[in-house]
Amino acid sequence: MAKKVKRVSRQKDAVDMTSRAASIIAVVDDDAHVLESMGELLEAVGHTVHAYPSPQFLLASKVLQSLDCLITDIGLPEIDGFELCRRTRIERPDLPVIFITARDHVADQQRADAQGHYGLFRKPFYAAALLAAVDRALLSRKQR
Gene3D superfamilies from the entry (predicted)? Predict the structure, then answer.
């Protein structure tokens, strides 16, 4: 059974939504529970979320040009998260990418570092850490 992302409470522990501009974030994961949890977390702080159960659905969609950030699982069938990152950067070389994974392989860290990323998180991870990485990614994109 897949582990769920820890949720941020919507009260005092939640990040102040007024400090973030609404952004469009794509989340790609083949685990429906992760997609749901990530969607709820990101929407709770004001982002618009497009959730995809596979890279093929994202690549076939027309949202790639409007995305502000991509969060993708590494261990996906057929097209893994690294290949998805490579393909999206053909059209969007400036698109910030955050990787998530249930694996604990040194090779994954090395590949992620080689491709450039704003975070590599092993499931389960803390919601606040993911939100901080999203904020860094969005801030760096706005500064370009």
Answer: 3.40.50.2300
27-123: what fold?
Rossmann fold (3.40.50)
Q: What is the pLDDT of residue 21?
A: 63
Helix orientation angle between 127-143 and 32-44, rounded to the nearest 10 degrees: 60
CA nearest 61: which of 40, 42, 88? Answer: 88
Task: Report the C-alpha gap between 74 and 39 in whole angstroms.
Answer: 18
The helix or strand, by DSSP H or E, that contains position 121, with its residue range, turns out to be strand 120-122
Q: Which amino acid is at 22?
A: A
Residues forming beta bridges with residue 48, ordered by sequence position: 24
Q: What are phi and psi of 31, to 5 degrees?
A: -100, 115
Phi-psi group of 46: left, alpha or beta (phi > 0 → left; psi -120 to 50 → alpha; rest → beta): left
- With 0-12 / 13-18 / 19 or more C-beta atoms within 10 angstroms meaning exposed / middle / buried, residue 143 is exposed
Rg of the chain over all Cα atoms, to the nearest angstrom: 14
Sheet containing 120-122: give its strands across.
Answer: 48-52, 24-28, 69-73, 97-101, 120-122
Residue with tokens 């027309």: 62
